[in-house]
Amino acid sequence: MLSVVARAGTVSPYLRAACLAVAGPLSAVSPAAVVKKDTVLLDANKPLLCGHCARTGPTVSSRLNAVAGVRFAHTDIRVPDFSVYRRPEVMDPKKSAQDSGDARKVFSYLMTGSTAVLGVYAAKTVVTQFISSMSASADVLALSKIEIKLSVIPEGKNMTFKWRGKPLFVRHRTEKEIATEASVNLSELRDPQHDKDRVTNPKWVIVIGVCTHLGCVPIANAGEYGGYYCPCHGSHYDASGRIRKGPAPLNLEVPYYEFPDDETVIVG
Ligand code: FES
């Protein structure tokens, strides 16, 4: 757009040649029509074109077939100078702009590409910041995990921890319990699941201590199967946390956990 406006300034002097020119404030028409008399007699049958020139005074010109419309050449209009915005390669009007076309295209492509890359990067940053502002804060994330030292839990015992507002059972099983739970026939189970699919290390059973019936907290090392017993309605779980008797429909839930070393487990 700026280029079009700038070029208009270059061609504006030639516009006078393409119109029916009459006297303007700064330039007179052809002297062939200048009448220097105190009194100018006008023929009402001839069309007239009148103007006023700053140098020659009132000017009248006539033609036999003059048209009604008159286009004034306003050569006094100041066209803004956009030279500072123009590229030096196209400043010379006598030089073809095509000579520098390739170089200017490279510059244009470079600027367009850089702007696009910066725009995409800025958009990605804004979106990332916006989404991350909705995620949990660092203190909340820290609470989402719990690290437990396994050495504090003796063999055959179960300890309860609080994790994400729920009780978490960590059970250190004996060799006898491990052998017993591994040999259970899956056809006897209401929610069939092999013991090896519920533990990472057979010595440790880690389950969420919430009864799958109505959400009571079972009692460890109790019930007919020696695992967990829910006194609310009498659900019995074995030492793998599987439901064996009572109204509960599912096994105790196993959360995600990992052992960074032999003495530690991280849940969550
Ligand atoms: S809530 Fe545990 S048996 Fe009903």
From TrEMBL:
Short name of one Pfam family: Ubiq-Cytc-red_N
Cellular component GO terms held in the UniProt record: mitochondrial inner membrane
Rieske domain boundaries: 198-266
Iron recorded as keyword: yes
Keywords, sorted A to Z: 2Fe-2S, Disulfide bond, Electron transport, Iron, Iron-sulfur, Membrane, Metal-binding, Mitochondrion, Respiratory chain, Transmembrane, Transmembrane helix, Transport
Keyword match Disulfide bond: yes
Catalytic activity of the protein: a quinol + 2 Fe(III)-[cytochrome c](out) = a quinone + 2 Fe(II)-[cytochrome c](out) + 2 H(+)(out)
Membrane topology: Single-pass membrane protein
Cofactor(s) it depends on: [2Fe-2S] cluster
InterPro entries recorded: bc1_Rieske_TM_sf, Globular_prot_asu/bsu, Rieske_2Fe-2S, Rieske_2Fe-2S_sf, Rieske_Fe-S_prot, Rieske_Fe-S_prot_C, Rieske_TM, Ubiquinol_cyt_c_Rdtase_Fe-S-su
Free-text remark on how the cofactor is bound: Binds 1 [2Fe-2S] cluster per subunit.
E.C. number: 7.1.1.8
GO molecular function, one term: metal ion binding
Family to which this protein belongs: Belongs to the Rieske iron-sulfur protein family.
Entries under PANTHER family matching the protein: CYTOCHROME B-C1 COMPLEX SUBUNIT RIESKE, MITOCHONDRIAL (PTHR10134)
Official protein name in the record: Cytochrome b-c1 complex subunit Rieske, mitochondrial
Organism name: Electrophorus electricus (Electric eel)
